[in-house]
Amino acid sequence: MTPRDASDANSNRWSDLDRPPLNGAALRKGLVRDGGHGGLYCDIEVVQRTGSTNADLMALALAGNAEEGAVLVAEEQTSGRGRLDRQWTAPARSGLFFSVLLEPSDVPVARWGWLPLLTGVAVATGLSRSAGVDTALKWPNDLLVTVGGEERKAGGILAERAGDDAVIVGVGINVTLREDELPVPQAASLALAGAVTTDRDPLLRAVLRSLEHWYDKWRAAGGDPVASGLQETYAAGCSTLGRVVRAELPGDRSITGEAVAIDGDGRLVLATEDGVQEPVGAGDIVHLRPA
User: Fold this and answer.
1) One-character DSSP codes across the chain
2) What are the tens digits of pLDDT across the range 98-120?
């Protein structure tokens, strides 16, 4: 993956002084492993505009042109996707939109389902430290912040298999979006949540370092969510637990119950009125009552 910086390609990069471009060279200097030794990241590429960083990195990976630790960042995504094929759009340079290629070959494939939750923990902890914003995770991987006493979504994660040996995790975070720029009223940004900084360079560095930290711990434990501390940390930061929720499942099914646990497979366990505890591995979760 050959670096191509948005800052080099865009002659009008300072057209919005509140939203300066990312510095690809500085990001690589600070995060990319030296001489192929130590660290997760092998390359960080910043592009001005693309449809989807996940789709682009997927194509590179499947063609054998990207290796583990490749990071693709876009200043603007025109066809960004969230879970359930939802669109994710935002003004140029208003957020962090990036994808990372991971190849956890030493972890059983059955445990790879923890990767989107791991990424959620990494994003939440990284942003809490760097932006000074209280964050929470809505199962499985929405990032929530509080604006005016109301929980609202400021980011999301999408994990996709890339062949048999790799997973691409994509992250989208609203950083400087103003109220009149939000795609839906339930959305938010770090700025609206009172972030102490909206400088995207240190925010991205903090998130990528946090991702490397949690990925290394998880791999060292063979993907065991208990031994790595991942299951406990995710549950502690999950705002879905303790609430009455409705799980909207594939096939037009739904289940309503109290979210009582995250099980060993990363599934959300619902206690229904029938006295049954039912794990949910996929679906859309609607919070019906505050915890």
Assistant:
1) -----HHHH-TTTTSSTTSPPP-HHHHHHHHSPBTTBSSS-SEEEEES-BS-HHHHHHHHHHTT---TTEEEEES-BSSEE-GGG-EE---TTSEEEEEEEE--TTS-GGGGGGHHHHHHHHHHHHHHHHH---EEEETTTEEEEEETTEEEEEEEEEEEEETTTEEEEEEEEE-S--GGG-SSTTB--TTTTT-S---HHHHHHHHHHHHHHHHHHHHHTTT-TTTTSHHHHHHHTBTTTTSEEEEEETTTEEEEEEEEEE-TTSPEEEE-TTS-EEEE-SSEEEEEE--
2) 999 999 999 999 999 999 999 99
